[in-house]
Amino acid sequence: MSIPAEDFTDANGTIADRIFDRLRHAIVVGEIAPGSKISEPVLAARYGISRGPLREAIRRLESSSLVDRKPNVGARVITLTSEQLLEIYAIREALEGMAARLAAEKMPDAGIADLRRLLDQHRNEVAQEAWQAYFQEEGDLDFHFRIVQGSGNRRLANILCNDLYHLARMYRCQFGMRSDRARDALKEHELIVDAISDRDGELAEWLMRRHIRISRRATERRLAEMQRNS
Amino acid sequence: MSIPAEDFTDANGTIADRIFDRLRHAIVVGEIAPGSKISEPVLAARYGISRGPLREAIRRLESSSLVDRKPNVGARVITLTSEQLLEIYAIREALEGMAARLAAEKMPDAGIADLRRLLDQHRNEVAQEAWQAYFQEEGDLDFHFRIVQGSGNRRLANILCNDLYHLARMYRCQFGMRSDRARDALKEHELIVDAISDRDGELAEWLMRRHIRISRRATERRLAEMQRNS
DNA sequence: CAAGACAACATTGTCGACAATATATTCTTG
DNA sequence: CAAGAATATATTGTCGACAATGTTGTCTTG
């Protein structure tokens, strides 16, 4: 929810920047189907802009590895394979584990307090069962997002927030991932925040890595299930 | 040396792609000084191209975080601070540690044999003391590059090879990093290859992380020294 | 003389048109 | 009728020109 890339306020920045955000969002939520062609003429017409800014946006989408471009042929939205998804989980485990450790060492107390408030909110939502899976997932990303920010490593935050989180979100939209793991995940989140609050970096890293590993296994099970049903 | 991005054969691909490679190389080796402005008109004139492809290349340089761009103002080459450099080392430690573990599990025997040949070559160069620091450093990157490739995680390889290695190289050129650590580094490389060859992922990860940590400490010492002399 | 406003300039952002390349269709030929 | 070549079409790549924004230098004025 508070991920900057999500709230593309159409007022600021250049057309290329705005179209990049819009396209990225459209791709991530599946509005533009995976594997479909990114045609410059039709998109330029649809959004009422010229091809110039559009091309720059597409080049950036390529850098974010959301589209696959071939010279003189064009760009297509990537189709996330299960292998690629597991690759992302592996990277997140390494990177976010490190982020949790750094956050335990360097995150300001105010940030930890914010984190606790966020968890309180999640706890209410889960308890009332009034939450929708969508918001639950958003909340999960929000949690991870804040910890990464708290690590203080700007480049780490860039890698995760500009690329990997969008890909993770894309997968969730693509496979209609509904989280029946909300309660467990919340508990894991709470333990992580406790460790960070105790400034126990080693434990925070271990908990975060396990959290992501569990999440990956749940995904693997789901993928195997889908494989079986198809 | 065998890093794909380095040999920009001017024959294939579009102008935008070629100019991206050329600019990246020019920035990395310091041909375009850190902090200097990336002026579209002057670069278009210098390379004899139009501004269109150039702009796309600049957008991609921005995605690689080699330039810093402000809307309606322009782009400037980033200036690597020592903090940013240490951030990169931290990320490399996490990511390449993982890569070494995966390589131990999945790298084909042929790849390991290639790795050994590479180390033989390095050993000769070091023994003859006929090596120049430049090639030594290139060889180091080549070693890391191959292990990352051997991990089989394509996205991991992209993150490291498309962004972080270029930044690391940029730093080395920027600070005129001469390696008096070649002998030790070679020994560490050999241990890592031994672990991979033994399919001991845990050890390979540990050795790789330590290798990068030692390298980071050497860099920190050098930075402190430079700080003192200035 | 200093500080702020104004104007001239340069640079970036955007657009439409043309050239080069790839894909799809049609035609020929065994 | 099938397979391949040649053409036709559409899309991408590139370019030069115009509009919008930032910057810089100058001029006025307290």
UniProtKB/TrEMBL annotation, chains A, B:
Q: What is this protein called?
A: Propionate catabolism operon transcriptional regulator of GntR family
Which of UniProt's keywords are assigned here? DNA-binding, Transcription, Transcription regulation
In Pfam terms, one family for this protein is GntR
Domain of life per record: Bacteria
- Which residue range or ranges hold the HTH gntR-type domain? 13-80
The membrane-spanning stretches of this chain are none
Question: CDD domains per the record?
Answer: WHTH_GntR
Name a GO molecular-function annotation.
Answer: DNA binding
* PROSITE patterns linked: HTH_GNTR (PS50949)
InterPro entries referenced in this protein's UniProt entry, alphabetically: GntR_C (IPR011711), TF_FadR/GntR_C (IPR008920), Tscrpt_reg_HTH_GntR (IPR000524), WH-like_DNA-bd_sf (IPR036388), WH_DNA-bd_sf (IPR036390)
